[in-house]
Amino acid sequence: MSYMFKAPSGPVAGAIAQQITARGYAVLEDYVSPEDLRGAQDFVARAVCANGGEYAGFTGTKDLGGTFLAGLPDDPNFIALCRGIYESAVGRPAPEVGFYQILRCLAGGGARTHSMRFHFDSYVLTALIPITMPDHGSPGRLIIHPNTRALRRSYLVNLVDKVLVDNPLAQKLLTRAYNRGSRRVIRLSLKPGSLYFFWGYRSLHTNEPCDSDAIRATALLHYVDPHAGSRFKQVLRRR
Predict the structure, then answer these.
(1) CA angle 43, 25, 143 (to 5 degrees)
(2) What is the pLDDT of residues 114-166, one digit of tens each?
(3) What is the signed CA dihedral for 75, 76, 81, 86, rounded to 10 degrees?
(4) Residue 1's pLDDT band (boundaries 50, 70, 90)?
């Protein structure tokens, strides 16, 4: 089965890159067709049900057959769009790489475990498509501290950044800023089927939890790891 995705007209990629840098994110409304979205929503509902109403996660596309998510990372229009956004922002050609794709389905008691954990992504650009969002209780918004660091030349510096964030004290301070309504924090309500972009590598981000009887499912496609060639990183992974 093949799926058709919208090809934005005009110099959209450059405008999206500028918008992400200026306000922290950009969005293409209703990027996924209603039919394809319903198919993915049915898949999510079945996956959560099969897991006893708890969190379900999928990495890559091999288990997503029958949904638009299986074909999206190979779609020429989507690839060209992400490549253009990256090149407009970074100022050099994008490497010939694919996407690191995850489908996260938050539900049940585990929904809170997988929420409110601020982090930097390992990839420059993050594309996010909401599949199912809560229709009651906590809205499960995307929380972003936009563009809080630069692209690091060294993987070691990048690693230090992550260690400084991934500890109880830092997480407590970040959550406190969120609870106090800091103006620097973006609280973004997500619309199923729309396509959102942000600089996942540069921006601290997380998601609000959803109620245990609701489902929050999002597809994340990460693009270009700037430290993919780091020998230090490769050594750490082997260990």
Answers:
(1) 70
(2) 899 999 999 999 999 999 999 999 999 999 999 999 999 999 999 999 999 99
(3) 100
(4) very low
Distance CA 182, CA 191 (A): 23
Task: Compute φ and ψ for 49, nearest 5 degrees.
Answer: -60, -40
**Of the candidates 90, 58, 95, which has an alpha carbon nearest to the alpha carbon of residue 79?**
95
What does the alpha-carbon distance between residue 27 and residue 52 come to, in Å, rounded to a whole number?
Answer: 33
Instruction: Return d(Cα 88, Cα 111) in angstroms, integer.
Output: 36
Rounded to whole angstroms, the Cα distance separating 178 from 209 reads 13
Order the strands of the 125-132 sheet from edge to edge: 26-28, 195-198, 125-132, 216-223, 99-106, 56-59
Count other Cβ atoms within 10 Å, centred on residue 104: 19
At residue 80, the 3 state secondary structure works out as: helix
4, 49, 67: which is closest to 31 by C-alpha? 4
Q: Which DSSP string do the residues of 91-113 spell out, in sequence order?
A: SSPPPS--EEEEEEEE-TTHHHH
Q: How many residues belong to the chain? A: 239
Find, among 50, 191, 49, 55, the residue nearest to 132 by Cα.
191
Mean pLDDT to the nearest integer, 46-72: 95
CA distance 60 to 58: 7
d(CA 18, CA 81): 14
Report, in this order, helix, strand and coil percent for the chain, each rounded to 5. 35, 20, 45
Q: Which residue has the tokens 């005009």?
A: 10
In angstroms, rounded to a whole number, what is the distance separating the alpha carbons of residues 151 and 171? 22
